[in-house]
Amino acid sequence: MKRSILIALGAILVLTVVWSVSEVDARRGRQGHRRAKIMEALNPTSEQREKLKTMRLGHQKKMAQLRANLKVARLDLRAVMDVDAPTGTRVKAAVAKVNEARSRILEHRVGHRIASKGLLTPEQREKIKELKMDRPFRGKGHWRGRGRRGMGGGRGMGEGRHGFFHPEPGQDPQGQGI
């Protein structure tokens, strides 16, 4: 009996892992397909293709480094917060490192987009605008990104609608009547 339960749990675990890996691969496939479709619609010259390919590879390498730096900064912040009595100055310094790493990622991403657009002709840039307008789920009210994140709608515990207690008017923050 115990053996059959363990086998069933093991099978469920294996199926879950296989399913999640296939979802990641499918998402990557859609991104590659979208990029190929855009390149086909733009009809870039061979010189443009080579420059864009080289730029994309350099961008991917740099982003890998920047993401690693962000991960290290987040781990450092966690280490600072895990002590019994974290000091404000150490926490602020660790948060500043996380924010700096995030800022560098955004700056590099925006710089790459500007440089990529700089290689295109005005007609090609206009074509990209048209292609972006044709994408589904671009209007207000539609979720975007990596998927829904549950009722809180974001990361962490925050003070969102489903987060902490929100006092009614006429109550103090501890929920007692005034």
Explained architecture:
With 178 residues, the protein is an all-alpha fold. The protein has two domains: 36 residues; 89 residues, Four Helix Bundle (Hemerythrin (Met), subunit A) (Up-down Bundle), CATH 1.20.120.1490. Helices cover 67% and strands 0% of the residues. Helix 2 packs antiparallel against helix 3. It is flat, with a radius of gyration of 24 Å. The termini are far apart. About 6% of the residues have low confidence.
Biggest beta sheet summary: none
Whole-number count of domains: 2
Percentage of residues in helical conformation:
55-70%
SSE class: mainly alpha
Count all strands and give the number.
Answer: 0
CATH class annotation of the largest domain? Mainly Alpha
The Cα radius of gyration reads 24 Å
Distance between the termini: 60 Å
